[in-house]
Amino acid sequence: MNKAFSFVDQPLKTLNKCCELIILSLLIVTFPLYAFAESGPSIKSIEIQGNRKVSSEAIYSKLKSKVGDNFSENLVQDDIQKLYSIGYFDDISVDIDSFEGGVKLVYFFKEKPTITSIDFQGNKEFEAKDLKEKITLTSGAVANLPLIQDNAQKVISFYQSEGYWLVSVLPVIRETSKDAVALTFQIDEGPKVVIKDIVIEGNKIVPEKDIKKAMETKERWLFSFITGSGLYKKDQIRGDIERIKELYLNKGFLHIAVSEPEISLSQDKEELSIKISVSEGDQYKVGSLNVKGNSVFTDSELLQKLKIASGQIFSRSVLRTDIDNILDLYMEKGYALCDVNPLVDVNELEKIANITFSVTEGDIFRIGMIEISGNAKTRDKVIRREIRLDEGDIFNKKLLTRSFQRINNLNFFENVDIAPSPRPAEKLVDLKVNVKEKMTGMLSIGGGYSSVDKFMVMGEVTQANLFGKGLYLKFKADFSAIRTNYNISLRDPWFMDKPVSASIGLYNDTFQYPDYDKKATGGSVGFGKELSEYVQGNITYDLERVSITNISRNASDIIQEQEGIRVTSSISPSISKDTRDNYLDPSSGYRNSLYLTIAGLGGDNYFVKEVLDSVGYFPFKWDTTFSLRGRLGLAAGYAGKKLPLYERFYVGGINTVRGLSFGEAGPKDENGDEIGGNVEAIFNAEFIFPLVSDVKLKGLTFFDYGASFDKDVTKYSLKDMRPTAGFGFRWLSPFGPIRLEWGFNLDPRENESKSKLEFSIGGLF
Is there a domain that residue 646 lies in? Predict the structure, then answer.
């Protein structure tokens, strides 16, 4: 038995040995595959092939798989997806080869073709060059289909904004070579569609006119060709839905619902109607008002800042204003991270909304670092000296706002941004001041014609930021048949780096009036200083030599008396308070000024002249502004001398009473020539509204009322005040402020025109 067993067992052992060898061989062969799947071999090399336009370095930077890392199939898949997302490749594949005890990854790329040309077909209303400005694709760009579709949509949006609501744009890609394509946008413009009417349904309490007034989308009307209204714009109508909701929420309708607009086209597809349905719900009033979480200020101090009151109709915009008022109160005391959360408890039964202002005060913060950037030309100190906060000061939002106004009023920058950056752990707020400089130097040469000067040639060179130090240099020259003028001036707002301004000027002016010739040569030296944050004091010394010659035989006595050469030596102190938010384009604030001139510090002329000038700006709805201005001037000679003819008040023209010629609203001599007065009174009222906000173009309507008087000729009387009215345009252009205003004479007298169109550049009213 034992031998038999041994005889049978021997082949079995041999068979087992063979199986072991086979299994071991299989394990040896398959070990790298198991190793790849389980532990991941090391990546020994990465190769990039097939790329021509995209550099290998740029591709390497996108890969998460790096040489020396363990291979991961999932990571390679992520890399492929990431490279596809760049938009430059049509196909990406990867080979994985054994290499030096690890693996080598070989990436193969097939790049998208390049767009060699971009064309438009079917466009009749707009030229190709105008359409190219609306897209972001250019020749040389990669033919990325999603980007091409996006640009086709940009063309569609542009057409729709111009009233072509049914436009279609189909991008056609034509292969011109293996690696290049030509792109053509095939356009079917369709008819121009205008809004015939807007219908509001469901409104019971809020009038339809108020709802339409809140909307930016308007019906087509007579002057739509000027205003651009009456066209359907998808983005605009979406915004209008929110504006309607805001209107209702400001009138206490807390559960307002507004439907999506229903659009219907006319049969000729040239007009459309818009229907918007509203569900007003109930109107709510304000119930109780409370505050909580406050310890720095008492309840009464915070409640005094509220405009909203119990019993009033609930208004979300007023609520927002009240939150800002409370925040401002805290931020003026250094609480930079204060937060106010309004808790509105609606009582459905009584139709009231109880409001609790929950205050999270936080800590007092100080100013950390003040960093200035974007100023390539302007020196840091020119900007820094306008900032009303220093490093280490307690944070103050009011002073931060004032700093923005002062930097902006330098008029050196297109954009000014002051971004507070809190560091809560250190209780510091860094100020990052970023500016974008604009052109501050200007050379202008022009010509023109007027009924007074005839043909004119004008030239002016100005640099408002000389050497980047904030120095203002101006040279101006005018030439015409009857006038020659040279004027040069220099002003340093921080003389010798002190908070004192200094200025110097020289001029030479000749003018041929109908009855006499005048030649004036002179110069001035002035100094100024800020007496407080908004108050400025100035004093100027002027020395002028005036020659009156070639007087007509028929000239009046007042002109005859001026013949000869006279020297005026005068000193002119002035003081002004200016709180305007923007000097060139104010929307709020005021400027009150008092100017005094005393002549007689030597020379031949002895007179006193004073002018009180006050102007205020009052913001209204929809970015509109009311402006009221009043001026009163008095002048008189002394020490037995009369007031010189050229120092009298001449009222009429674009800077005084528009619609009248220079001096027309004042006394005249026996020959009917304007001789000015020794008293002036002028009142101006304006309503200013935006036309094209992006280019800072505004319109205005105005009413002027004023005159100058001579107490030796006539008594003061309101009957002598001259009324005018009109409209105009103002543009803060890259070349300076431009005014075009048309005034109408409401009470024309003999030999006076009924209207006057006037133009000026370089300053606003």
Answer: yes
